[in-house]
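Hey L., structure's done. Input below.
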Amino acid sequence: MKVCVAGLGHIGLPTALYVANRGLKVFGYDISEKAVAKAKSSGINALRNWADVPPADFYMICVSTFLKNNEPDLTPVFDVCEKIAEKAESALISIESTVIPGTCRKINENIFKGCAALVHVPHRYWIRDPIKRGVKQLRIIGGVNDVSLKRGVRFYRDQLNIPLHVASSIEVAEMSKIVENAYRYLQIAFAEDLKMTCDELQINFEEARKACNTKWNVEILEARKGIGGHCLPKDMEFFISISPYNTILKSAVSVDNTYKKWLANKEKRHLIGNP
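Output:
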């Protein structure tokens, strides 16, 4: 069994290593010389030239997606699918990259001409806890059709030993990833808003938070230095971009921006000795 992992960054490299440890023959592909070198040093047969990548039985797409002018930029996923279409034939193709609903069917129709065995299994990898929250954790899977779904389940659950929640459609799987991160963003923004309010009323935020969290169905998060990183801000904007019904999400972005300015002003006042 040959597996090609396309994209060898924070998600792709651990994925390639996990698959290799399951006894499958893995080829890695990335356009980044640095990513390829790191993968090679980790024991993965990694390549930069797509022409050198042999045809595989399974393709796992782990390339990054981005924002461009506050709109989803899924170009890397489309580009690698164009390459895979040259070699795929009867292979199973899995998109693990974060996309918006409708992307996988568009790729299947426009690039694979409706003939691909295509599934979406969005990653949930958390770099701070690669053991419990790594490649092997409960994942969601959806397929463009029943045949694709069955093949995807056999590959992930039976060969890779990854537990799965099977979605009724690939759109549910696509939606799930951006919703998970948007919801997390919303939770953090609430904590930030609460912290600013407590400060205004001269109430200890941490004490108030812990007091609220004694209720069985309440779990207010910590408020730290604002929402950063790649995934949460990007996926929040992905969610906002797909529908006009997202007023609360736009408000959360506004809260986080206000909170960051509030923190900066607070730090500035502290440095000059003002209360």
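The two ends are 65 Å apart (CA to CA). The chain is about 45% helix and 15% strand.

-- N.
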